[in-house]
């Protein structure tokens, strides 16, 4: 898994001095993860992991209000017989200076790899704004 992340993203990030080794890259990723404190932000908005279903719009709003940028949220579609989608990944985007920026793709900037992302065997896709949304406490 780590090798995949490094080959896919790290080798590109390595053009920056602060990220030019695997140790620096993963260290910085952990630092940014802790700095972002996603769970505590969502808890402040009353969104608790593993407890109930939420509106995707409420989750997006809470994140955008708290961070001032739009993250990219991907979901696992409802399983057969289920009505709710499950959040599979919340992705924050950064500038080269490691400042948060909106995750909406910049003009002329496309990432064809994004479509190939899989969690287990299931496809992650753009979350629906209308389906009830489950925010899992543990990512499998």
TrEMBL record:
Cellular compartments per GO CC: extracellular region
List the GO biological process terms.
RNA catabolic process
Record GO terms (molecular function): ribonuclease T2 activity; RNA binding
What does the sequence similarity comment in the record state about its family? Belongs to the RNase T2 family.
Q: Provide the protein name.
A: RNT2B Ribonuclease
């Amino acid at each position: 898994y780590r090798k995949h992340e490094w080959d896919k993203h790290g080798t590109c990030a390595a053009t920056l001095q602060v990220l030019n080794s695997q140790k620096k890259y993963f260290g910085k990723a952990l630092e940014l993860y802790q700095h972002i404190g996603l769970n505590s932000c969502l808890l402040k908005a009353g969104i608790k992991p593993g407890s109930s279903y939420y509106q995707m719009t409420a989750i997006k709003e809470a994140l955008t209000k708290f961070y001032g940028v739009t993250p990219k949220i991907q979901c696992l579609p409802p399983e057969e017989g289920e009505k709710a989608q499950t959040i599979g990944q919340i992705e924050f985007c950064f500038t080269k200076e490691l400042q948060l920026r909106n995750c909406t793709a910049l003009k002329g900037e496309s990432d064809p790899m994004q479509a190939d992302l899989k969690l287990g065997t299931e496809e992650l896709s753009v979350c629906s704004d209308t389906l009830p949304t489950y925010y899992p406490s543990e990512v499998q």
